[in-house]
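Exercise 7. Predict the structure of Glycosyltransferase 2-like domain-containing protein from Salix suchowensis.
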Amino acid sequence: MIGVYFCFRHDDAPSFFEDPNSQKQVPCPHIHDPAEKYISLVIPAFNEEHRLPGALDETINYLQERAGKDKSFTYEVVIVDDGSDDATKQVAFDFVKKYTVDNVRVILLGRNHGKGEAIRKGMLHSRGELLLMLDADGATEVTDLEKLENQIHAVASKEFRVGESTSSDSSFRISDIPLAAFGSRAHLEEQALATVQSD
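Solution. The predicted structure, encoded as tokens:
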């Protein structure tokens, strides 16, 4: 049987993975550790037992499809349960069992800290070179990830070339360039409003 692992934290204590079957604890990875995956998708979740399964199915199917086409594409999905009082934790654990702890991990915050803290914890304990956040409600199409990813690569490549003359290391990793990118659905809302107004 596959062990179910999760990260937990008690105030200022370090975070650990714990296998509920063996009770063994292993420190969670930290953002400053070398990347072990190409991409980490962090999904903050608070009382999302009903919406989370659909979003996870769509997300993991997409990631598996990409990994099948490109063997260098590695991923993890980090679900951060922000103190849910419904079955969100169990839904997340079911996905760990189905897809293995190497690809799906769960961080339990214990009590509700808010979406910002859930995202922060997920990012801090991710193993990806690229760290991205998706909402648990599936409001963003996971296939749109490639648009954002392409822009990140374009900016990072440009920044690398600018600093290349001072660097003796010609190997380039996306994580070598500090940058942040934000996707927005605001233009879709404007289009929806415009469409409604034109009827």
